[in-house]
Amino acid sequence: MAAEDEGRTEQPSEYKLEKARKEGRVAKSQEISGALVLLLCVVTIVFLSKWLFNEIITIFKFYFTQCGTADIKNPAFVPAFFDVFIKCVIPIGLISVVSAVAGNLIQTRGFIFSLKPIEPKFSKIVPKLGEYFKKTIFSAKGLFNIAKSFGKVAIICFVGYLYIKKDLFVLIDIIDNGNISGALGLVAKMAAQILITVAVIFLAISIPDYFVQRHDFMEEMKMTKQEVKEEYKEMEGDPEVKSKLQQMQRQLLSQNVRQAVAQSDVVIANPTHFAVALKYDETVASPMVNAKGEDNQALLIRRIAEENNVPVVENRPVARELYTNVEVGDIIPEIYYSTIALIYSHLEKFKNMRK
């Protein structure tokens, strides 16, 4: 069912996407990781093919020379096998792990660690065959995945057909001449060409698949209008979110000092060291610190105030206290109410005198 049909018409918020990310739910395509692992592992095998071939020939020679003479319980047999096996597997295994991690990091834009997806749930143990078949077969996403699987098989068959057809008669001639090593080399070459070509095609196909998966994920994350309202209320009560919002507000105000000072009611200054601009809005309980500065910044605030006819009141202790204890964007604390009220009352008298 489409998101709109369920009433989810709003785009997901950053808060919801971040929450889903912490739970390990992000938009990603398994095709990118799989294609990258296949491509890099095949390239590694091709690059190390001569060394791998020599190691395998060495271990075969060892066992074939010993099989008729040595005791089957010879303790050297097992270590010899694992020595060659580990040396041959480790490079390919490391490359596969690195490429798989890289494929996921590219899509998720960083590491994500969450135990949420593997938490035991009884609902996952109980089989829901109807829901499973509906999701995997009788849905647009299920049909798309089935089409991808058949398409990948078709690509492998087609690429294999092209390369085998090209070298088939050459291979037959080599075998007829009794050149077994030459035949093995040609077969290995064809296999490498087929695998590399298929891996490159898969990697190219996986890029649009990522955007399809991302679109599906964003559709799944869509919200109803009610969810948006509830999330906003939840964010309002979250101390961390409130702190970030206040910090952003302070930064914004700090970047617009000239405009903030020009719109202020008064600047309280310690003649040369501190300056604090206040603005009173009737919608809040008390004036808010619109801008503040120290030393050169304080002189700049005073100059802007004078240019815009904003009164400057010199009050050393109040200026220092406000600068130290109140951030830009915050309303002044209750302990300063009487002092600030007195300053504002003098401002009103001053305005009346000017009128």
Number of helices: 14
List SSEs in N-to-C order. Answer: HHHHHHHHHHHEEEHEHH
Total E-strand runs: 4
Mean pLDDT comes to 78
Helix content: 55-70%
Beta-strand percent range = 5-15%
Cα distance, first to last residue?
69 Å
Shape: elongated
Rounded radius of gyration (Å): 36 Å
Going by helix content, strand content and strand pairing, the class is: mainly alpha
Which stretches are poorly predicted, pLDDT < 50 over at least 5 residues? none
- Biggest sheet details: 4 strands, mixed
Q: Going across the major beta sheet, what is the strand order?
A: 3-2-1-4
Properties at a glance:
355 residues; mainly alpha; elongated
Structure description:
A four-stranded mixed β-sheet has the order 3-2-1-4, sandwiched between helices. Helix content is 69%, strand content 6%. The chain is mostly helical and 355 residues long. The radius of gyration is 36 Å and the shape is elongated. It has 14 helices and four strands. The longest helix is centred in the middle third of the chain and has 42 residues, at 180-221. Helix 2 (30-47) crosses helix 4 (77-108), helix 2 (30-47) runs antiparallel to helix 8 and helix 3 (49-66) packs antiparallel against helix 4. It has helices spanning 14-22, 30-47, 49-66, 77-108, 122-125, 129-136, 140-176, 180-221, 225-237, 239-255, 257-262, 296-307, 316-325, 337-354; strands spanning 266-270, 274-279, 288-294, 312-314.
